[in-house]
């Protein structure tokens, strides 16, 4: 309450330092690999970091950020990725036009989101358990749809050219997947930080009861959040499918843990420790750079995961330890 | 000073304590004698709970010292307090819900099967049965879980837990607030027996009849000062009430033109089983209407029902001339109702949102263009309300957490001013609010009423009710027992109505 | 049955209480129904399989189910202890996401040392030490650095999973040692040795958790920290201890998996979410609907029976995860809907 001024200043300094953990780590990693790994700095390599490592994870992590903002988590983001991919591939395979198939893909993701919305907003199950259940049910559903988990390949000949646009196209010299990621990030940043919806979602995450006591529809916001999360994740599914021209059942789960990690690392960037899109994106960038840098520096391929894990751990430890009261 | 045959066991000497400039205790000196039941009474904010928290080692006095058993301490710590044999029976019962009674009683000092590291469940059960039977004549099934017990039974388990430690001093903080009469009587019998066994009891209560019936000595606190300590034989409930009542608070309340206008809110035949029955009243424009009653009297449930947080089984609520409606908080806010809830920190404001974000939370549509929050107009609104309500903050971007309780409360009200609400439901609006902010909040309420809003104040702070409101509805056993005009009732009389002592009965629940 | 409302005073004198009794009674009944329902489902499934497949009820097959459940069972029991001490809120309370990766690394350490010619004793100690060390890192991260368990163990999971890849180069390291041979062989009555390990581990843990003061205190720490603190318990020690124990479980599971698969293999992380679900599902098999060791064991066996039965009937075992998911949602919905509304 009545802290000595010097102490207050010190405290502010510590707080500022904890916010800097992520940007400093990013710069340090960048400099380190520039020195250690020949070829890391090459434009071609950096572009490959963005296209191969960054794009899909950033979209999924942005989706996750909305769930975390609302005070929850979504373990079934990968399921939304998969369902979108399955719907997209199935319709293309059935000879439907690509735009319709894309819409169906978004619809596939939305199904997962609606299911979560019913569980979380309707019944009141905690998001962790609800989305864990969705994840498990989603697994079986996918395996049933694919005769026990067989990939659905698209015949190279029969696929319309427009199918590849999302994953492999380029516009004005820039790869389309990257443009899509940029668009998703920009829209998400505006929605979360500037829109009325984003404001209420943030308030829900901080103190859900205050939202209800303020005469705002709490359940509607919770439901909309989880549908939005699934829709954004579905975009990642569409880009992924367009790149690899195959639907592999239960492959979306690969993004889950890194997306959670990035969203939480990102909170260290915010003045009040709130989930935020910029932080999430920097978190994804950090993870992508480390993965690529370790690869380029000729270190054993498998050290990547150790490095990533240690880095997440350090950033979290620094930021949590400095928040001690 | 009262002479007592026994020696002192607790002695507070010149205790001072302030919170952020507001004095909670000033120069309190007080002696509790061994083997007595010592009552501690005072209105909300009189300093009772601060004094108890000092004794529990949860607060540190700014000045003065505490002597326990002849040993003087500048301040106490929870650990020290426990080693001195002082135990607290709190209102919130610290018992693990999924435990059996035996497990809850013996947690932390579990009996083991001799010669093994294993829990002796049989002994736990037997001893639990034994002590509960001995102290309370209470028999609980061995398999009963804490979560299945009634409030009274939980209370008893907690007292029994404290007794197992062979305490020297037991502090009861409003122990009967959730008990029915028979249960309370059992508790009193027990307390007397404990006293006869040499245990000193410090007993805090709102119910003067209890104090009169149970205590040997009573101490009255008022506005953080020690007003009197008297043997119960030399005083009466009426005299104690007189001592509790604050005579010099009158000028806190603004003088207001009391001229109610058209009907704003009409409640008819509102009933909900076990909570309230056949409640009906009308709130007029420009009126400040008081509600009061003991815990469980139904007043709070009615207020929550108006805002749609609870549902009534029968009856109608009509706002202005619109059709009767079934409320939800969303609907209530749309009909220009505003609730400032009692639990400010969980329901009223979000401590980790900024002043600005809290202020506009209920009125965001006004600051939204094409779905986006217009930050400039939002900031202007926040600044306007900060100035208007004299909210003391480092700025509109400061987190609510950094504000004092009184200023947090102003933000909780500002939220609804921003929504241009018409009907304000204020639930204990000045609990935990320092005196300066209190005066400002009272002035604001008066101003709102003069501008034509209707205001309902639910409060257990009786001077506040009398000074602030036009009429008071007194709830008793779920019904409106009486309606009084605020100007015509004294605090003593109101206290008697609220506690039901005018009917010579006691109801709590 | 459990609740006698007329405990303290005659019912007539209570007439004026706004009674919370009704809800607790119906809750208690619902709890019993839920638990009974879970057991009934288990028994029904068991009986159905017994009728559908002649092999199902043979001692050999039942032993197989136990052996197949051993690894996930040990892990789920370790996780259960963390959940007991950390409380039921999965995000802020007890969770250990590093368990499956821990098992993978411990198995790899064991296999690598055996292959390098170390004797069983050294390899076993190293594997258990690996598990304990991982547990210690989690414990420090949660109690000292105050990182929420979900994130702390997530980061540790990444590191541990990576270390396993570094050690194994993402290949299978075969290991055949006397210990592994006896573990993968049969014990008394022709029942697999792994089955005995699972039952033994469950029994010891159950005794400690369910029958000692330590266990009782773990529950208090997890369910109501303020009450535990008021009883003079040092919360952090219990929480740290629970992570050490789950780390050790990971080490033990590592040795078991090396025995079951004759070496270390990749993909241990796949086991994580099934283990989490098994531990959470275990709560339905307990009287008070809290996590218990016996409940988790039953839940692990239930999953084992499902997988085994589907295999015997030539049905796709892919349904198992869906059934687990549905069950967990049903259980949690039921408990959520039965919980009295916050007032």
TrEMBL record, chain A:
GO cellular component: plasma membrane
TM helices/strands, residue ranges: 20-42, 54-73, 85-107, 114-137, 172-193, 222-248, 254-270, 277-295, 301-321
Keyword match Amino-acid biosynthesis: no
Keywords attached to this entry: Cell membrane, Membrane, Transmembrane, Transmembrane helix
Any one GO molecular-function label of the UniProt entry: transmembrane transporter activity
Cellular compartment(s): Cell membrane
Lineage of source species: Bacteria, Pseudomonadati, Pseudomonadota, Alphaproteobacteria, Hyphomicrobiales
Source species of the chain: Xaviernesmea oryzae
Entry protein name: Branched-chain amino acid ABC transporter permease
InterPro entries reported for this sequence: ABC_transp_permease
Main location: membrane
Membrane topology field: Multi-pass membrane protein
From TrEMBL, chain B:
SUPFAM superfamilies: P-loop containing nucleoside triphosphate hydrolases (SSF52540)
The keyword Chaperone appears for this protein: no
Record bears the keyword Isomerase: no
Residue span(s) of domain ABC transporter: 10-248, 255-502
Domain of life: Bacteria
CDD domains referenced in this protein's UniProt entry, alphabetically: ABC_Carb_Monos_I, ABC_Carb_Monos_II
Keywords, ordered alphabetically: ATP-binding, Cell membrane, Membrane, Nucleotide-binding, Repeat, Sugar transport, Translocase, Transport
Molecular function (Gene Ontology), one example: ATP binding
Pfam families (UniProt xref): ABC_tran
Similarity field: Belongs to the ABC transporter superfamily.
Descriptive protein name: Sugar ABC transporter
Record organism: Xaviernesmea oryzae
From TrEMBL, chain C:
Keyword Repeat: no
Subcellular location per the Swiss-Prot or TrEMBL entry: Cell membrane
Membrane topology: Multi-pass membrane protein
Protein keywords: Cell membrane, Membrane, Transmembrane, Transmembrane helix
Cross-referenced Pfam families: BPD_transp_2 (PF02653)
Gene Ontology molecular-function annotations: transmembrane transporter activity
Transmembrane portions of the chain: 32-53, 65-85, 122-141, 148-169, 189-209, 238-261, 292-313, 319-338
GO CC terms: plasma membrane
PANTHER family per record: ABC TRANSPORTER PERMEASE PROTEIN YPHD-RELATED-RELATED, RIBOSE IMPORT PERMEASE PROTEIN RBSC
Protein name (record): ABC transporter permease
């Amino acid at each position: 309450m009545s802290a000595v001024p010097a102490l207050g200043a010190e405290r502010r300094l510590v707080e500022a330092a904890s916010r800097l953990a992520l940007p400093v780590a990013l710069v340090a990693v960048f400099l380190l690999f520039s020195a250690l790994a020949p070829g890391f700095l090459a434009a071609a390599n950096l572009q490959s970091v963005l296209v191969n490592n960054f794009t899909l994870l950033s979209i999924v992590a942005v989706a996750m950020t909305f769930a975390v903002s609302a005070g929850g988590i979504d373990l079934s983001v990968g399921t939304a990725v998969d369902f979108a991919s399955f719907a997209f591939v199935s319709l293309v395979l059935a000879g439907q036009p690509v735009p319709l198939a894309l819409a169906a893909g978004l619809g596939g993701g939305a199904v997962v989101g609606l299911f979560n919305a019913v569980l979380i907003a309707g019944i009141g199950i905690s998001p962790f358990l609800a989305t864990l259940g969705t994840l498990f049910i989603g697994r079986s559903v996918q395996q049933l749809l694919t005769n026990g988990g067989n990939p659905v390949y698209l015949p190279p000949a029969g696929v319309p050219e427009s199918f590849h646009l999302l994953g492999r196209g380029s516009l004005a010299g820039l790869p389309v997947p990257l443009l899509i990621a940029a668009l998703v990030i920009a829209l998400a940043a505006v929605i979360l930080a500037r829109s009325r919806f984003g404001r209420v979602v943030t308030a829900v995450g901080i103190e859900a009861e205050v939202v209800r006591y303020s005469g705002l529809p709490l359940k509607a916001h919770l439901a909309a959040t989880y549908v939005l999360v699934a829709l954004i994740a579905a975009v990642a599914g569409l880009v992924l499918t367009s790149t690899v021209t195959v639907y592999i059942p239960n492959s979306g789960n690969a993004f889950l843990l890194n997306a959670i990690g990035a969203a939480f690392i990102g909170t260290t960037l915010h003045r009040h420790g709130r989930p935020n899109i910029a932080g999430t994106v920097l978190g994804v960038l950090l993870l992508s750079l480390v993965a690529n840098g370790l690869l380029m520096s000729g270190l054993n391929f498998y050290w990547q995961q150790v490095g990533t894990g240690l880095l997440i751990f350090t950033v979290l430890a620094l930021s949590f330890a400095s928040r001690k009261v | 000073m009262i002479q007592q045959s026994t020696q002192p066991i607790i002695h507070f000497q010149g205790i001072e304590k302030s919170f952020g400039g507001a004095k909670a205790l000033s120069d309190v000196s007080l002696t509790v004698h061994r083997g007595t039941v010592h009552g501690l009474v005072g209105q909300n904010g009189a300093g009772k709970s601060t004094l108890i928290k000092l004794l529990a080692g949860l607060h540190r006095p700014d000045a003065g010292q505490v002597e326990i058993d002849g040993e003087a301490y500048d301040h106490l710590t929870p650990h020290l307090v426990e080693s001195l044999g002082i135990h607290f029976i709190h209102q919130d019962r610290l018992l693990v819900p999924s435990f059996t009674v035996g497990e809850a009683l013996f947690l932390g000092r579990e009996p083991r099967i001799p010669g093994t590291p294993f829990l002796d469940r049989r002994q736990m059960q037997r001893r639990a049965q034994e002590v509960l039977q001995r102290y309370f004549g209470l028999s609980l099934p061995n398999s009963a879980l804490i979560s299945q017990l009634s409030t009274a039974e939980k209370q008893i388990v907690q007292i029994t837990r404290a007794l197992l430690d062979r305490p020297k001093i037991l502090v009861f903080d409003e122990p009967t607030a959730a008990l029915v009469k028979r249960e309370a009587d059992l508790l009193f019998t027990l307390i007397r027996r404990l006293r006869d066994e040499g245990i000193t009891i410090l007993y805090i209560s709102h119910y003067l009849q209890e104090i009169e019936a149970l205590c040997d000595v009573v101490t009255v606190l008022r506005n953080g000062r020690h007003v009197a300590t008297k043997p119960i034989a030399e005083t009466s409930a009426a005299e104690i009430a007189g001592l509790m009542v604050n005579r010099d608070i009158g000028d806190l309340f603004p003088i207001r033109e009391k001229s109610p206008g058209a009907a704003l809110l009409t409640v008819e035949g509102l009933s909900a089983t076990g909570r309230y029955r056949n409640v009906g009243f009308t709130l007029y424009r420009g009126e400040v209407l008081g509600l009061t009653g003991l815990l469980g009297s139904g007043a709070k449930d009615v207020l929550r029902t108006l805002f749609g947080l609870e549902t009534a089984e029968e009856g109608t609520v009509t706002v202005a001339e619109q059709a009767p409606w079934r409320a939800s908080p969303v609907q209530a806010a749309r009909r220009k109702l505003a609730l400032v809830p009692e639990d400010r920190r969980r329901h009223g404001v979000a401590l980790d949102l900024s002043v600005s974000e809290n202020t506009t939370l209920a009125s965001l549509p006004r600051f939204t263009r094409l779905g986006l929050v217009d930050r400039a107009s939002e900031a202007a609104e926040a600044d306007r309300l900060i100035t208007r309500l004299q909210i003391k903050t480092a700025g509109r971007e400061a987190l609510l957490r950094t504000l004092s309780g009184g200023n947090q409360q102003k933000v909780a009200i500002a939220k609804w001013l921003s929504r241009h609400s018409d009907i304000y439901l204020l639930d204990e609006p000045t609990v935990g609010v320092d005196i300066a902010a209190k005066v400002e909040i009272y002035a604001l309420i008066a101003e709102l009423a003069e501008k034509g809003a209707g205001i309902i104040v639910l409060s257990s702070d009786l001077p506040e009710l009398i000074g602030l409101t036009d009429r008071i509805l007194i709830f008793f056993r779920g019904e409106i027992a009486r309606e009084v005009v605020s100007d015509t009732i004294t605090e003593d009389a109101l206290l008697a109505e609220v506690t039901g002592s005018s009917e010579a009965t006691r109801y709590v629940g | 049955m459990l609740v006698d409302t007329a405990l303290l005073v005659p019912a007539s004198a209570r007439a004026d209480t706004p009674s919370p009794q009704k809800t607790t009674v119906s809750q208690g009944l619902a709890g019993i129904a839920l638990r009974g329902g879970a057991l009934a489902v288990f028994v029904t499934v068991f009986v159905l399989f017994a009728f559908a497949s002649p092999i199902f009820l043979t001692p050999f097959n039942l032993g197989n189910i136990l052996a197949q459940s051993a690894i996930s069972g040990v892990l789920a029991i370790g996780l259960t202890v963390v959940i007991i001490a950390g409380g039921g809120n999965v995000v802020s309370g007890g969770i250990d996401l590093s368990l499956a990766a821990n098992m993978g690394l411990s198995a790899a350490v064991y296999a690598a040392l055996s292959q390098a010619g170390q004797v069983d004793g050294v390899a076993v100690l190293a594997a258990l030490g690996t598990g304990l060390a991982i547990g210690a890192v989690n414990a420090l991260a949660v109690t000292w650095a105050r990182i929420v368990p979900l994130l702390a163990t997530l980061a540790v999971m990444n590191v541990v999973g990576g270390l396993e890849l570094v050690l194994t180069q993402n290949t299978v390291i075969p290991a055949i040692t006397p210990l592994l041979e006896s573990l993968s062989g049969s014990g008394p009555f022709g029942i697999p040795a792994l089955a005995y390990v699972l039952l033994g581990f469950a029994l010891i843990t159950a005794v400690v958790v369910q029958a000692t003061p330590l266990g009782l205190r773990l529950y208090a720490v997890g369910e109501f920290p303020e009450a535990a603190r008021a009883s003079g318990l040092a919360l952090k020690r219990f929480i740290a201890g629970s992570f050490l124990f789950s780390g050790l479980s990971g080490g033990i599971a590592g040795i078991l998996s090396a025995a079951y698969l004759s070496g270390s293999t990749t993909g241990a992380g796949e086991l994580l979410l099934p283990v989490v679900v098994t531990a959470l599902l275990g709560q339905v098999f307990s009287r008070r609907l809290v996590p218990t060791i016996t409940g988790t064991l039953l839940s692990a066996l239930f999953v084992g029976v499902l997988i085994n039965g589907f295999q015997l009937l030539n049905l796709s075992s892919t349904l198992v995860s869906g059934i687990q998911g549905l069950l967990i949602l049903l259980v949690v919905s039921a408990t959520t809907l039965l919980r009295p509304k916050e007032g």
